[in-house]
Design goal:
Tetracycline Repressor, domain 2, homodimer, 2 domains, DNA-binding, 9 helices, 81% helix, Arc Repressor Mutant, subunit A
Amino acid sequence: MADTRERFIDAATRAFAERGFYGTSIANIAESLPFTKQALLHHFGSKEKLYAEVLTRISERLMRDLAAAGTETSDASERFENVFVNILRASLENSDDTRLLMRELLDNKRRAESARTWYLAAFLDTLTDLARDALGDGAPARSLALVYQLLGAINYFVVSRPTLAQMLGAKTFDELSTAYEHELRSLITSRLGVADEP
Amino acid sequence: MADTRERFIDAATRAFAERGFYGTSIANIAESLPFTKQALLHHFGSKEKLYAEVLTRISERLMRDLAAAGTETSDASERFENVFVNILRASLENSDDTRLLMRELLDNKRRAESARTWYLAAFLDTLTDLARDALGDGAPARSLALVYQLLGAINYFVVSRPTLAQMLGAKTFDELSTAYEHELRSLITSRLGVADEP
DNA sequence: TACGCTACTTACCATTCGGTAAGTACAGGG
DNA sequence: CCCTGTACTTACCGAATGGTAAGTAGCGTA
């Protein structure tokens, strides 16, 4: 059944996000559902192929989210800011995906071919165009750098949340969580508000 | 010999950074040196203990670097900016360490007790104090959020470099690399240059 | 010369891993 | 009623893993 496949992909996403590709065994994934690992192999053929399906589903969602955002306003700066706030919210909401993609980023140099970066390339292209409109200057590397810095600010935070929660204590952690989006907006608007020196 | 220990820790740092804790076998580490895995076990007792020594050595370097920076100037904003540029340079220079710490961040929720966050706590404390001085406002959560965003901007970039190099091609990648520090400075100075609304 | 210590090695082991082989149960169609 | 395909299961396998046991070689000391 297609439903069983989906359940496997769900469980695999959680497991891979939590323990990484090598820290996760297919038996482990299957045991979190009422199936054996052979059922998993029946549907996906191999661990690698299951992982590929997990990645595909995540990048499809990313592109869908990105396409949905960025059409709310005509002001370039405002649009830029809103797009990144949307990315922050989506990344927080799908933190398993975010963690898994961070692991993939760390691993994919080794995981050979890794033409798997296509989703990132499309992502960056779109965002860099938005950045150029918002910055209004000509150097494409600057736009790309800014985009990457903001993605880093977002993803690193999402990935750190469990550690931060434990380290900071509930009160400070809650304050940080609520401050984060506001502070991200400040960072973006202030950056967009100043002229660049060459 | 102490030298053999150091060589094991060096090799382990590279291996753990590249493949992660679970993707690395102690036999693999030993094979990259003219020793057997039993020599490794003789010196460190277990894989976990070796990993702990690797982490300890990294966090000691981090604290040393941080203590060395931040004393160059008396102006709070300038000091803040310089500290983060120093962190960027050090993270790039020790990219294995950066990658390994990113993996640890992803793993340590699971790796139980993980009182291993102490180095991060001290790091954040120091940086947040600098941020408060530079921002000149009272909300500690804002300072912490800003610090974390800049750390994210730095670490995410360092970790992504192999992927970016492959994805962007040599020319664009070089442009991005040289633009990154400049753009980070722009991000910081512009953020410090505007007043906060509550 | 004997002793103990450090720095290793070879041999071995139980467990876990991803994957294959060979089935069982059942549904739908001719 | 049989045939075929799907969705699984139990049984099994070779390779790799972390770790233990039991050495061996060399050095410093009494």
